[in-house]
């Protein structure tokens, strides 16, 4: 910033030369220049020039302040958006973990149902074998044969029920795997 002696030297010139000298200065103190002009030559035209330059400088500063405030608001908006996105990512990760747990539970259920189905199938085979042996027996064992046939029918119904449950469980498992894949893709995006 120029010194008082630079200001006095500039103001000692004609109005046009003083204007040129002031315009060449780096961020002059217009309030100081106005006071020096009023205490010195007190030229109305020079004071008007200095006041208009000062007003222009203040307007430029106000524009800079407004621009800075806008930039600050934008930065705060970006920070808020970032925080919101981080919360959404955390929610998605939590949902993904929940879905993975559900998938694990469904796998366990599927395995359990498959084991139960296998046991039922083994039991059906065993009963069918017994049924074949019973057919070869005497006619007096016909009543016992009918009893075993009813057991086989019941087991086949249970087998059908288990197969339907297994089919629904497999469908659910596929859906959850698909949802987990979609969440993974969303997280990667």
Structural summary, described in words:
There is one protein chain. The chain has five helices and no strands. It folds into two domains: 4-73, no CATH class; 88-188. The mean pLDDT is 92. It is rod-shaped, with a radius of gyration of 46 Å. It is mainly alpha-helical and 189 residues long. The protein has helices spanning 4-11, 15-24, 30-39, 44-135, 142-188. The two termini are 52 Å apart.
Enumerate how many helices there are, as a single number: 5
Strand content: under 5%
Radius of gyration from the alpha-carbon trace, in angstroms: 46 Å
Number of domains: 2
Q: How helical, in percent, are the residues?
A: over 70%
What coarse outline follows from CA principal-axis ratios?
rod-shaped
Give unreliable regions as ranges. none
Structural class: mainly alpha
**Which whole number gives the mean pLDDT?**
92
**What is the ordering of alpha helices and beta strands?**
HHHHH
Report how far the terminal alpha carbons are from each other: 52 Å
Biggest β-sheet description: none
Count of extended strands: 0
How are the secondary structure elements laid out?
Layout: H1 4-11, H2 15-24, H3 30-39, H4 44-135, H5 142-188
Helix pairs in contact: 1-3, 3-4, 4-5
Short précis:
This protein is an all-alpha fold and about 190 residues long. It is about 90% helix and about 0% strand.
Please name the defining characteristics of this protein:
about 190 residues, mainly alpha, 5 helices
């Amino acid at each position: 910033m120029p010194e008082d002696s630079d200001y006095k030297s500039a103001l000692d010139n004609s109005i046009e030369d003083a204007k040129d000298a002031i315009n060449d200065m780096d961020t002059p103190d217009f309030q100081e220049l106005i006071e020096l002009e009023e205490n010195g030559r007190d030229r109305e035209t020079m004071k008007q020039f200095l006041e208009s330059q000062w007003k222009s400088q203040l307007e430029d500063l106000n524009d800079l302040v407004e621009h800075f405030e806008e930039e600050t608001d934008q930065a705060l908006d970006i920070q808020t958006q970032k925080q919101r996105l981080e919360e959404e990512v955390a929610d998605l990760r939590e949902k993904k973990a929940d879905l993975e747990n559900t998938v694990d539970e469904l796998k366990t259920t599927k395995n359990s149902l498959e084991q139960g189905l296998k046991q039922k199938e083994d039991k059906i085979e065993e009963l069918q074998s017994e049924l074949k042996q019973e057919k070869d027996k005497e006619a007096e064992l016909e009543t016992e044969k009918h009893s075993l046939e009813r057991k086989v029918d019941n087991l086949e119904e249970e087998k059908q029920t288990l197969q339907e449950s297994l089919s629904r469980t497999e469908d659910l498992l596929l859906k959850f795997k698909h949802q987990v894949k979609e969440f993974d893709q969303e997280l990667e995006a």
